[in-house]
Amino acid sequence: ADTKVYRASTTAPVNIAVVKYWGKRDAKLNLPTNSSLSVTLSQADLRTLTTASCSAAFQDDVLLLNGEPSDLTGARTQACLRELRTRRAALESKDASLPKLSAMRLLLVSENNFPTAAGLASSAAGFAALVRAIADLYELPSSPTELSLIARQGSGSACRSLFGGYVAWQMGSQADGLDSQAVEVAPAAHWPEMRALILVASAAKKGVSSTSGMQQTVATSGLFQQRITDVVPANMKRMEDAVAARDFAAFAEVTMRDSNSFHATCADTYPPIFYMNDVSRAAVRAVEVINAAAGKTVAAYTFDAGPNAVVYYLEENKDLVLGAFYPLLEKLDGWKDGAKGLKSSVQFDE
Ligand code: PMV
Predict the structure, then answer these.
(1) Is the ipTM above a cut-off of 0.85?
(2) Looking at ligand 1, which atom is closest to the CA of residue 158?
């Protein structure tokens, strides 16, 4: 029997949204209630490396995540595997000389180069790397946008990690989700001075998962309706213009306003959801102090579904921003915890 092992490896970066995805209109297909836009971080600092292999000798699908056996049976992971196998099977049925990889079990070995316990969303890089590694193994002729349609079904934000630079996830309008995909807004080289500082306010796992937080927000927040009909469409347009013009002050204002708007809808749910904590709020104040002292906007904060801050700034203002943060946050518990994990300034990627 053929016991050959077929193998492919790839990496995918972490992305941090500056206009947030928050709300599903279809939970099964991960179709969002609004478009979103993100910045992809440097793979030197934050990425997932995944090797996908398959062989007729393998008995089961297996995922090893940072060396530990991990669950592959979740509906979202299964949706990704099913989509990829279906595409491979279509190629095999057209060309009988191709090995029947679609019928073989998969071994997926995934490593993050950052502490998973740092409380950073790793699912985006994780699903993006998983989907691309298997697509490469299966030799599927897929563009990043096509792969984004599959990665989206694993974790919504993962669809944006198929690209570097500035990336939009277009919400789409179709019920089948075939137009809910990621597109490049600008490559990293368009605005290569962009930097991100990650402040680990808590390494604990987040309290309310993004899936249940979104569900509760859609179901109970009154503010949420206004966010998806007015706030986000305006922020998407402003953000695309800010990136096109490399206008940091505009980029920063939209980033901070959109983060505030997202966390306001969380606080507006019943019962309320609080992702930000006292350390998060200290980081907001620190950014305000930095910008006031500089006499212009040189730093922008944003928060995902957890207390950690991501602060965007330009390389030319590095000393101003980092210099202000170290002494301010050194005194806080959260910063000292975080210093063991991740406190680096993350550079931009190609
Ligand atoms: O991709 P998910 O289901 O983990 O949701 C991510 C939600 C946010 O990180 C809060 C926002 C975003 O656009 O990434």
Answers:
(1) yes
(2) 1
